[in-house]
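Q: I'm teaching a short session on how sequence maps to structure, and I want students to see two examples side by side rather than one. Could you give me a first protein with its sequence written out and its structure tokens following it? Keep the formatting plain so it prints cleanly on a handout.
A: Of course. Example one:
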Amino acid sequence: MNFLRLIKRFIPPYKKEVTLNIFFHLLSTLLSLVSFAAIIPILQILFGVNTDVLTYQTVDWNASVGVITSTLKNNLFYWIQQQTTTQGAGWVLFALGVFLIVTTFLKTATSYLGSYFMIPIRTGVLRDLRSSLYSKIIHLPIGFFTEERKGDVMSRMTSDVAEVEASIMASLDMMFKNPIMIIIYLTTMLLLSWHLTLFVFLLLPVSGYLIGRIGKSLKTKSMRGQEQTGELLNQIEETLGGLRVVKAFNAEKKLISRFQTQNDNTRHTFNRINRRYAMAHPVSEFLGTAVIAALLWYGGALILSNNSPITAPEFIYYLVIFYSIINPAKELSKASYSIRKGLASLERIDKILNTDLTIHEPAAPSAITDLQKEITFKHVSFAYPSGRQVLHDINLVIPKGKTVALVGQSGSGKTTMLDLLPRFYDVCEGEILIDGVNIQGFLTHDLRALMGNVNQEAILFNDSFYNNITFGVEHATMEQVQAAARIANAHDFIMATPDGYHTTIGDRGSRLSGGQRQRISIARAILKNPPILILDEATSALDTASEKQVQEALDNLMKNRTTLVVAHRLSTIKNADLICVMQDGHIVEQGTHDELYALNGYYTKLWQMQK
């Protein structure tokens, strides 16, 4: 069953809390029966119902449960009768009232303790689910996020996780607390009168069927609601990321209109979900009242007959117990709705958690700490999951310490080649070798530890200069960070800020210029001190003055390193040891600048166009 699947999946780390929760709810239910039992003698005293003179009976513990129960019941009423005779009815009523207060206090206290031990389960499940999701997202290949929208992923980590958490709690009540209460109450009702309980059993399936019909389509509607929430978050994320363009093109009204339409659609969907969900309580209450009315009629008819199996005070006690069943029964119906909603959210979460990691680690990895000889692309071909072929039979050797540049039109496969080297994607055909060993034979952590990346867009975090430069480098000293910043021409502008290296740079480095952001990312790569450097159009988005400063920093970074660089501005790679010209996924020309220019081919045309 679905709720059993939920419990098996999320609850095992909290067995202790679950055990204590069950124990205290069981105790609370038993205490509620004991406290309700005080009603019978109170009614008998108030209305003078029981006029029989009772005698004390010795309990035969070897007898049946029914006989033992009957004897204990007789002796209890004998004691009450004796106390009424000797101490007076008023004192007995006072004693019964105190008994009712004490047992009710114990009942509510144990009920609270049951809820008390539920809280760490609830918060723990929420934490575990978010941690699992975040960890999975961190380890998923980059290709996954080309298919998924960031807003939808955020929705799954927030609203979907919260919905599953609520579903887990509902399923716990459904599995433990409510069934325990219902079973104990029904057993007591059977002991009091099997005639009345059989009548109840005939009525409850009808009401249960009607309640079940209400929530039949709730799961589908909930799925759509969470998808629409993801679309809303995606629109917000896109708007925040592109606010400059929105304002520059006077597109505020267009985006507001689009957002309001989506917002209204989401509201209507959740209106339908919540109206259906809210129907559980009134419908179950109405059906419960209808069952009680029928029970009053049938029970009253039994009592008014000459051979009634139950007395009037016992019938009142029976009704109190039955009414106590209604609340857990209503919670069961609401829990079933909540589980349907939670399962819809769980399916969306599982789409991420069950996504295969396409970048597999080797069973017996080879060790690697440095580049000794060369990097080799050997008959490499690559196509994205959509089927679009990007690279065709690439062959390239990058000797240690040399700079190899990739140039060509947009979409020719240059950046894809850079992504294949650190295994952001795996090749479809061929292999990439480092010192003769296929890179798929190394642990991705060890492989990527050899490489430093500087991209066209400087990826920075809303943290200090120091923490951004030391990102991914442990135990770096301030002197080392300052030395890396000086090489990257970043030290002076960092020291000009109010708190120097401890100044926060804003969201994605929003408080810095483009050139400053790029120099921070270069300082980060310098501090890592990698033997292999990957530069992806690191200066193409900069103005001339910034480009000069960044290019100088890059020249400092590239000294004595093996460098693979992509550039649109051919002047920045004129001195590269090898230039590869790419077109439609093929290397069509390769050589030094002078050799390629002398060919008067594709590279020459590119150079002349830029000149």
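Q: Perfect. Now a second example for contrast.
A: Example two:
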Amino acid sequence: MDFQTRLNQLFVEEKDIPQQFLLPGEIHQRTYLSDGAMKTWEGNVHEVYSPICIQTPDGLQRKLIGTYPVCTEKEAEEALEAAVRAYNNGRGQWPTMSVAQRIECVEKFVQRMLEQKDIVVKLIMWEIGKSWSDSVKEFDRTVEYVYATIDALKDLDRDSSRFTIEQGIAAQIRRSPLGVVLCMGPFNYPLNETFTTLIPAIIMGNTLLFKPPKHGTLLHYPLLEAFKECFPKGVVNTIYGRGHTIVPSLMQSGKVNVLTLIGSSKVANELKKLHPKVNRLRAILGLDAKNAAVITKNADLKLAVQETLLGSLSFNGQRCTALKIVFVHRSLAADFTQQLSEAVGKLKFGMPWENGVMLTPLPEPHKPAYLQSCIEDAELHGAKVMNENGGKQYESFVYPAVLYPVNEKMKLYREEQFGPLIPVVPFDEIDEPIQYLIDSTHGQQVSLFSNDKTELASLIDPLVNQVSRVNINCQCQRGPDVFPFTGRKDSAEGTLSVVDALRSFSIRSLVAAKLTEENRQLINDIVTTHESNFLSTKYIF
């Protein structure tokens, strides 16, 4: 069977989809969570079409999954006021609650979340085209992250349960919340990366406005009742609608204390500028990245090909940590591109429910056209598609393309493609990729491939000051989740990890008193009677 025939048979009729992967029906969301209630929406809605197309008597059509509310500034501002009231300048029920009580609420939530696993996993697969196995992994990893966050907070609270005495002053130092958090997650990991900010923000005592990503909205709907039942009124509020319509007024209000966004630096910059008191705004941002692989003449070629393949094409290259440009020493370039092209040809492509599939349809409707423009631009400036069938498209599916030789005249040299294109740049001197990283506006990670310890050492020292993580002989990645995840330049602001996220969404506060006899008695009485949740020596097991 030739390649074009395989592409033409990529999408099937609905009757040919295995029953266990089908949704129970279209999901038409007509409620949203605000101020502790599931409020009914009767206005405009957005239709959600899957990147998975279905063969019908009328031809190939994207499958309609369901709809969700397109709310207005009015509903967004009502949700903001609910979060402001729930926080109540730090005097609300949630921010003054004990750490143990907040942990209990989150534990209750994650149990309710587990009850919705089947439908959430199916929605991840259908909404963004992620393979079934990776959709399951995303859910499971998110649950593991929540439990790890709980454990980390217990450790943090245990360390804070004692008093510090210095120069005749006794103090108890704990972490306290920041206020109202506006949380916006990405479409590529719509559950996991959203929850890596949402859960730490909540558990530290903040109140929340949560805007789901445009692609990956419906999968949060089954969890809204759990949020409603497990947290006090107004702690978690969802906002729906066009981001450019509803978010600016929220920022202009000055009532948002923390902006957490995983998306583009352009959007983040525009939103931050809208805040009237930018010095009061804390930003925790995961932004653009153009992670490079640098393959020197001393690299293990087979290993470099294997890691580049995984790093550039996992989830079709739609990861901020993906390898998006590959520098290879000219002496290895021909062998590298040949072996990489052969490896791409062995990858299984198809529908997300197929066992072992790696390449699947793309969720963004305009992405295939953009990727095609990148290929054409590269070819115009001297590059060639090195792998057989590279760049061929069919509806929402784009087959990976290895492009070589890429140079500074091409869009792919500068722009983050966020898709299955692998630009390969030959170099003669190691200073060439180093200078690229210095000049780049991005600074998340880099992968170095070499078996020469002297060479690696000479590269590590300058590059740790350009990017936040240097990976040796392996692809770029976020995990393990206990490691700090951040970036330099325009790639990030703030640091995320299981522990760092707790710090990011809180601030150190302390209660201090001179050690007079009267103060000793007062502090002992407060601690003994448990009248304060902050000034306390309770120990969480």
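Q: What should students look for in example two?
A: Point them to this: The mean pLDDT is 96. Also worth mentioning: Residues 123 and 219 are 5 Å apart (CA to CA).
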